[in-house]
Task: structure prediction
Amino acid sequence: MAVDPVCKMSVEPAKAAAQSTYRGETYYFCAVGCKAKFDREPEKYLGSGKPR
Amino acid sequence: MERMTAPVRGMHCAACVGKVERALASVPGVESASVNLATEQAAVVFDPARTDLARLRAAVAAAGYELAEARPDRVPGEAVDGERAAREAAQRREKLKFVVGAVLSAPVLLGGMSHVLPWVPGVLQNPWVQLVLATPVQVWVGWQFHRGFVHDLRYRTASMSTLVSIGTSAAYLWSVAVTLWPHAFMRHGAMTYYDVSAVVITLVVLGRWLEARARGRTSEAIRRLMSLAPRAARVIRDGVEMDVPTAEVRVGDFVRIRPGERVPVDGVVTEGASTVDESMLTGESLPAEKAPESSVFAGTVNRTGSFVFRAARVGSETTLARIIKLVAEAQGSRAPIQRLADRVAAVFVPIVLVIAALTFMAWWLFGPEPAGLLALANAVAVLVIACPCAMGLATPTAIMVATGRGAEFGVLIKSAATLERLHRVDTVVFDKTGTLTVGRPVVTDVVPVGPAVGVRAAGGAAAEASGEMTAADEILALAAAAEQASEHPLGEAVVARAKERGLALPPMREFSTVAGQGIDAMTTDGRVLLGNRTLMDARGIDVDVLAPGVQRLAAEGKTVIYVAFAGQVLGVIAVADVPKPEAKSVVAALKRLGVSVAMLTGDHRLTAEAIARQAGLDRVLAEVLPEDKARAIKVLQAEGRRVAMVGDGINDAPALAQADVGIAMGSGTDVAIDAADVTLMRGDLNGVVTAIELSRATIRVIRENLVWAFGYNTILIPVAAGVLYPVWGVLLSPILAGSAMAFSSVSVVTNSLRLKRWRPQHGS
Result:
């Protein structure tokens, strides 16, 4: 399971609504809105949440 | 300059059109005038400062026709009913005239044939009885020919009417003279020709009636177009919703459209979203997505969503109204053709008159006593024999048989003149979508990124039963499963192909449609994304690996659908409208007939050219706006081409009406069918080849018929003139005249019937 870095929900990668690659890491999101937020300011959401 | 369209009554031939046009053009202040025989309309552009309707009507009346009440040149249609009633009345009149003519002519004919039919009662041979029977036929039934003769005389031309009028009048007047003063004439063996006058007129009227039955219905196209816009619209004014008649919608009104409703006027969407079926205007089968800022058009059909739009163009300004106007204009501007029979008559009449005059002079100068009487008798005989009664049947019978035969091959031909136009066609223009192509998208390619992954369709007996799938099938199966519930034509294409291949579809849940992007669905193993590049980008799916393939597909004019599963792109499905299976062979067959072939479409050049290549077309007119289709046909006509247009959509209607011959697909819209001259019932393009081949065969038969019709009589002209008299003492007798009529009629009808066995050369 992966964690959506924006809303902190746990997301099953295969079923993720959207995904994004940032600095070689792939992040998974529960919804397109979370991805859009993340793509605008990735650093803001990566401060505490650790990608898996 | 003002433009006006008004119905013209009393026209019955191509020559009439020229006369009315010349009459109108001769009025000072008239810039141009064009008259349409089919719709019986005159379109006049004139300077209102220099002339007015009264003067135009006077000019037309002086030419012997009637310019009926004009209506302002805006959306036509109200007058359609009245015109149709008038046309039907004209048909009934022709029929009545034929019936009366036939009833009265039969006894006259029998009386004239008493020398071969001994059982004919003696009373019918009485010239007074014959006079009573023949007079109504000569005067009332034949009135249109005498009137036509007077018109022709005024313009120094000749048509069939001239020939019929001269011949029958000569026969009739001579016979009356013989009846009134039998002693003066009979002593010298003069005989009556009542049977010739009555039978010729009756047969020619029969031909007229047969053709009149095939005419009409051209203005139906306009009526149907008008019915496309709904009668009422739901407008919001000052926050209050109310239903108002469409005609009262004003620019700036907000109009609410609910699912399934038709759009009443043109405008711009302000709120809501939906897809709208615009196929009637654009011919495009894919419904158009509508969101705020999108334009919507009157006559189009809303599908599932609901929206509000601000009216921008109303009344005669809407796209639909402009198409209606274009159809009306195109119908009004079509150049008339001079009918074959009239062309022959135009040459024949002066020759006959000269021969009659020479005959009269020769007998007058060199003939035996009483020279004056014999000179007159023989001049009359020349005129009588020169009027071939079979001439009236030469065209109608061939056309009747040909249209019947055409119908058996699924080709419906609307009028006689159509066949005469069609055989001269040298360019065929096809509309693309739905005419040359199947009109709906079909899966053409499936391009996988890599080998099949196998596990993807897992879960359930269906997947196991299908065994190992190829990568392409796997993509199709996933896509079809996601699109199962879709009503989108692209989705339907994908599902149809998966069914064809007998693929087992993995179970899906949680479908959702992403407006303007595609579909998002879930399998037990992962998320399926199906849609365009925008969808892939929004979901962070990397599709760069497919770039070269996608570029190639786009260059072929295909629409690309990406398929992603569990965050990975699996491949693309390419979808495109494809040419009908027979398209290529039809184009080849047309070229063999010496006809050049072009395609006309509003589509992008790229897509259009891809289709053109597949069908083997010479010429592509792409990115043509619906309003400009008729103009494109005009351009081809200005190059001196005779153009047949093949189309199916409402947007094709102006072009169908503009073309020399409009051919509608029977699978198409009623508007197109009404605007066209030919309908292909089976929606099969082979019908175009069949129609052209049939028209050529028919014209050949008509020409032969004219030879037969004129042939017997022409041979007898010297006899009538008395060439054989010096040697054998033979002059024209009613027996000879009667035999010529009988033989030529039988020959013509028999020859026409040969068309019953006609079949297309082009294998269908």
Remarks:
- Chain A has a mean pLDDT of 83.
- The CA atoms of residues 17 and 31 of chain A lie 5 Å apart.
- The two ends of chain A are 8 Å apart (CA to CA).
